[in-house]
Amino acid sequence: MTEIVPTSWLVYCRPGFENDALAEMQHHAKQLGVPCESSLGEGWVTLMRLDGEPINDLHRQAAFHKLIFARQSLAALPALTLSRDDRVSAIIKQIKASGWSFEDIWHETPDTNDGKALAGLIKALTKPLQNTLKKRGALRRKAGARRLHIFWTDGDKVQLGMSFPDNRSELVNGIRRLRSPSRAPSRSTLKLEEAWHEFIPRDQWDERLADTMQAADLGAAPGGWTWQLVQRGMYVYAIDNGPMDSELMRTGQIDHLKEDGFIWEPPQRLDWLVCDIVDKPVRVLAMVERWLTRKWCTEAIFNLKLPMKKRWEEVSRCLASLETALSKANVSAEIACRHLYHDREEVTVHVRLKH
Fold it and tell me: Where are the domains of the chain?
């Protein structure tokens, strides 16, 4: 049997953002001088090397934690079309030809109704496939924590991908599903909760989201993000001309100031700045840059609303502008950006000043 190598880079993304994920992937491929051609479907994108060489270097260099629009990042084999009478054999054959071994198997689908409809088929095939791969030694206990992803785009179409520890999402389909708190004033509360999960290691929450801290929420009303801060025990300056949730205000942990979030200045240095104001990215960015260059806060999470087209280019410009502003002010910081599951037409940016 002819040996095959992973020549494709496969990422999952939010449906409707395929061109943005593709633009980001092409940027990384161009930086490394890797010739590629692209293909995409609803909720996924691939780049395939034109020279037939393995994609591993590009996949490794474009580290998952640096990607913005990708929910998952895989080194992938050529897509397969399966026989509806025997879907397992073709998958087994390709895995054997690849020489791959792995410790786990995840069956995944695009984040679409058609993808969700494949759940029954996948469930029926999971055990037979798993048992066969165990017998052949491909699925085994010690395989460097590698994981096989079987990405189903249809009942007879799959693409096999491999993920590696420290360069992947540890969430099925790359999606963090959170339960909406019934007492929170708005569903936007999940954006901030997901951002904390994404950007702050769970074992650092007690230190970096401590109940002794003070925070500002710019554009706070009715209080979805303020609610998260209050739940962590923080004292919050809620800046918004609109009304705050009355039950939230009864906590006694909030100072609601009916002022313009773009011009308000804190009375002292705060631990956190959060902001989900709906406005042009350049205006939000100018405000956040003022906070960070003057060191009015230690950490910040804010959303940038995106245009309908060329979102990757806009985000790139914004992040470059932020890095330049901090550098000119001699402020050292860690910056991360991600299109989160609970985001829609925005990306979430996290900045942590280095002491």
Answer: 8-174, 189-353
305 is known as an active-site residue? yes
Q: Which residues are annotated as a binding site?
A: 188, 221-224, 240, 260, 276
Give dist(CA 231, CA 211) in Å, integer. 9
Long-range (24+ apart) CB contacts under 8 A made by 87-93 are 87/125, 87/156, 88/125, 88/128, 88/129, 88/132, 91/129, 91/150, 91/158, 91/160, 92/129, 92/132, 92/133, 92/136, 93/1
Residue type, 90: A
Q: Which of 305, 309, 310, 328 is catalytic?
A: 305
Looking at the domain that runs over 8-174, which CATH code has it been given? 3.30.2300.20
Structure pTM? 0.95
Q: What angle do CA 351, 354, 355 make, to 5 degrees?
A: 140
Q: Which residues pair with 46 in a beta bridge?
A: 10, 39
Q: Which two tokens stand for residue 188?
A: 């936007």
Fold match, 8-174 / 189-353:
no
pLDDT in tens, the chain (355 residues): 468 999 999 999 999 999 999 999 999 999 999 999 999 999 999 999 999 999 999 999 999 999 999 999 999 999 999 998 999 999 999 999 999 999 999 999 999 999 999 999 999 999 999 999 999 999 999 999 999 999 999 999 999 999 999 999 999 999 999 999 999 999 999 999 999 999 999 999 999 999 999 999 999 999 999 999 999 999 999 999 999 999 999 999 999 999 999 999 999 999 999 999 999 999 999 999 999 999 999 999 999 999 989 999 999 999 999 999 999 999 999 999 999 999 999 999 999 999 7
State the fold for domain 189-353. Rossmann fold (3.40.50)
Binding-site sequence positions for S-adenosyl-L-methionine:
188, 221-224, 240, 260, 276
Angle among Cα 213, 217, 220 to the nearest 5 degrees reads 140
CA distance 337 to 297: 18
